[in-house]
Design brief:
The chain has eight helices and twelve strands. By secondary structure, the protein is an alpha+beta fold. The protein has one domain: Alpha-Beta Plaits. β8 and β9 form a beta hairpin. α5 packs antiparallel against α7.
């Protein structure tokens, strides 16, 4: 993946943990409630959750896409927990269950960081040691292992990456106000190519703030499909323009291995579990 332009401090704070992503398309009757949750942000709702290191509640574009027109029903949560167990506790919590009950569709995933470049709020992520601290939860069999071999991970052991092939990508950037118009000339086509890219099972555009603080989350059948998308077409042109013109004051790209996922998105079921899901009591 080409490196994004990034002017953050040279030594951002390192956060080590397990990523949880939850995507919602709330039922129309819950729109006012969903907007209130979004406006409240994470400070009032999530910062007191045990083991929570990082938290964002984000809006989305129309239809869950990467557009300037906001969606009244689509939202996403991006969390980083200090352990598998604390991540699991949130995924099985009454709080998340209540959110899911208000959604027409919902996808949830527990993810281990394979690689991370850049930073978010002067923080960068890794999962070194977090999975290895629970070796009894891992084995080499997976319900969703693919025929191709994933790229070696900087954060997980070789045996663990062999067991987990489905990969996820998170790209976020703080767009300079003076570069916003230029940035948005490239973004829509890159998002359109993402939605139709071979191997892309799910994608959602997210926004921490309108226009300027943007994020994309995507799910891929294998690492090679993600790499192919990153190095061609509209996305490659957008990255080249970002590097040349300095679109971002801060940016981060994270590649992650899927440890657990479940839910319904775009009419498609995503229930699939690595052995760790069964050991943690997450398998449906």
């Amino acid at each position: 993946m080409p490196k994004l332009s990034n002017d953050t401090e040279p030594n951002p704070r390192l956060l080590n943990g397990v990523v949880v992503v939850v995507l919602f398309d709330f039922l129309p009757e819950h729109r006012p409630w969903a907007w209130l949750k979004l406006m409240q942000g994470t400070s009032a709702l999530y910062k007191t959750w045990p083991g929570l290191l990082f938290a964002k509640i984000m809006g989305s574009g129309e239809g869950g896409g990467f557009t300037l027109r906001p969606s009244s029903t689509h939202q996403g949560l991006i969390f980083l927990f200090d352990s598998l167990e604390t991540a699991r506790d949130y995924l099985v919590s009454a709080e998340l269950s209540q959110l899911r009950a208000k959604a027409r569709e919902c996808w949830q995933g527990m993810l281990g960081v394979n690689s991370c470049r850049g930073s978010w709020d002067q923080q960068t992520w890794q999962s070194v040691g977090v999975l290895e601290n629970s070796p009894e939860l891992l084995n080499t069999e997976s319900q969703f292992a693919q025929s191709s071999t994933p790229s070696p991970s900087k954060s997980l052991s070789h045996s663990q990456t062999e067991a987990l092939e489905v990969v996820a990508s998170l790209t976020r950037g703080s767009v300079r106000a003076s570069k916003a118009v230029s940035f948005w000339r490239y973004a829509p086509q890159a998002q359109a190519d993402l939605s139709s890219a071979q191997g892309c099972e799910l994608s959602m555009g997210l926004g921490e703030a309108p226009v300027l603080r943007q994020c994309t989350f995507s799910l891929w059948t294998d690492t090679q499909s993600l790499v192919n998308y990153a190095h061609q077409g509209a996305h490659m042109r957008a990255i080249a323009a970002a590097q040349k013109h300095g679109f971002f004051s801060e940016s981060m790209f994270v590649r992650m291995q899927v440890l657990h996922m479940r839910g319904l998105w775009g009419g498609k079921s995503f229930d699939a579990n690595a052995p760790i899901s069964h050991a943690l009591g997450l398998a449906s």
